[in-house]
């Protein structure tokens, strides 16, 4: 304990510079712990939302006859989820039974017929869009409390209706399950998110915290060596060093948790795009808090112990005139097996031998990613020293020669300055791969996305507004014939009313179509509709807006047009009759018809079309074949979380560079002053400083881009999707790498001042 108290006394009484360094270490640790807390809070936020969903889930007794009798007398509920723009809106219709039940969380009582309880966000939408009240009929009796909502932006309503109005309702006797089938993020997707955040945030965070724990490492090592020379034991030297590093890290951890508490309050109220939560959801669990309070000081102690080992074992080896040992070649060992694994998967994907053993891939792939990340860190000094030696021998430039000789003598400087940014670019490649896989899983495999709206009660003007929504490239009216007869299964055909240009927008793979002429659509890959025989006649009942009726007989034409539909989501079916709009009497429309719209299946286009349709009529019930709006919401949440992770990774990477570059510049002041006294011009010194940082950083970034793209491709190969090679992401990645180099170069320029302070080299 005496050594620990000695370390604290040295910390408080060794001058203003040492106290400033301590505060910088604590401040840097606070930023890192705050970022770590944000990452650790995400699973807790998602779990809290899923818990509230499970608590409000309705269930009913089941089993023998008494239970069935009770179920018949129990209240009834019907749950409907509709797209409201690009967001899901859930409506729970509740009909009372012979006995009362406890209300779900968030309600003081269940709604009676004619009463409605809505979420705060849905109430705002009802005020902005009065027409939405058609989907939420009744008198708003109150608001749903936070205990009954997954998140503050949820659109949710409990609607009371008479029992005879709820024919398809399910009996309910209590609320609350131990789990929910409607997770905010599916478990498999959540594992992918955790894996990505580990690479994007946690790996650079370890480097950053290590850099913060080793500020002014050379000066501290010489001070520890002096203590060792006056008789302090090896263990005592390490305890003295640990007193400062652990105290700074512990103070930083406490400050970081306090900063996170404020940030959680702010962001939870403001919200992220597509992802909001209640402030209580973001509170850290006891385990996460202990990870921050113990993990950060433990990492600082380990980094300090490694840094103090040299001064404790051989004090003379840290003197100013001592020559640093070259980095050991074993630093390349982690990189080689990691590259071997990802290269094997890339070759397997290129040759068409995609691995089927997902269990083995789920172990090898994360292991390879970690090995490559560690390998990049450990191999950077080795590669930097080797390259610096060769460039120094071949270059006639004084600035470049001085810079390379310094990197050759002190290769560890490149490790501290460049590692954070190198890992950031490497992690960006992995994040791209995850986003590509999520797009493959979530998006429609068809090149088009269709939308179906019932035209019952829709005016001609509103129909035209739907058809001209931005993003829609094709539309048509779909109707079925019907006859008033007693046959159980009367013959029926389906007609699609559209022009040829409208039809091509809906079905790109279609043969020659002539405007103004009806035809049968035939798909060789589908079973032909037996009722749709050439020459057969079918009646279509028409109605106009004034209520007038008309019956139109449609004869199945002999002319046929071939079309293709590999996705099975086309508007047409084999045997459908395509009619030009001119065949309909002016102002008339088939009864029971629906409007089908099509657009590109790109997620951003689908969201835009749904939002635009909601702008025309928020109460319209839009069906999206092949697409679940809940899936769109989940992908939005995942992308927001990954974007937040990338922002945190960027903050950590830039902070690690600024801290390491500034600390390195302070330690290099005596050498720079000596060169200035020898006659080196400031321009030469600045060029030397930039070359010292930029060259090893550029080498590391090239390695990061190459290994990152290989790891991304191997991840896509093991993911089971159809896309293995992401050529579109290469320009963005190269642009990011170039931006990092420019940032490092600009950040190195101000570190060389005009004033020469001989006191800096007095001891030398």
Can you offer a commentary on this structure?
- This protein is of the alpha+beta class and 764 residues long.
- Helix content is 53%, strand content 12%.
- It has helices at 2-13, 16-55, 65-73, 120-128, 187-213, 217-229, 234-270, 286-313, 335-350, 358-394, 398-409, 412-442, 460-467, 500-506, 603-616, 629-667, 669-677, 682-719, 729-748, and strands at 58-59, 76-84, 87-95, 115-118, 139-143, 155-160, 170-171, 174-175, 448-454, 474-480, 494-497, 519-522, 537-543, 549-555, 560-562, 577-579, 589-590, 594-600, 622-623.
- The strands form four sheets. It has an eight-stranded mixed sheet.
- β2 (76-84) and β3 form a beta hairpin.
- α2 packs antiparallel against α5 (187-213) and α2 packs antiparallel against α8.
- It starts with a helix and ends in a 16-residue tail after the last helix.
- The model is unreliable at 62-66 (pLDDT under 50).
The helicity comes to 40-55%
Q: Could you give the order of strands across the largest sheet?
A: 15-12-16-11-10-18-9-19
- Unreliable sequence segments: 62-66
The profile of the biggest β sheet is: 8 strands, mixed
Q: Could you tell me the strand content as a percent range?
A: 5-15%
Shape annotation: elongated
Number of helices: 19
Give the C-alpha Rg: 34 Å
What does the average pLDDT come to?
78
Structural class of the helices, strands and pairings?
Answer: alpha+beta
Number of strands: 19
Distance between the termini: 35 Å
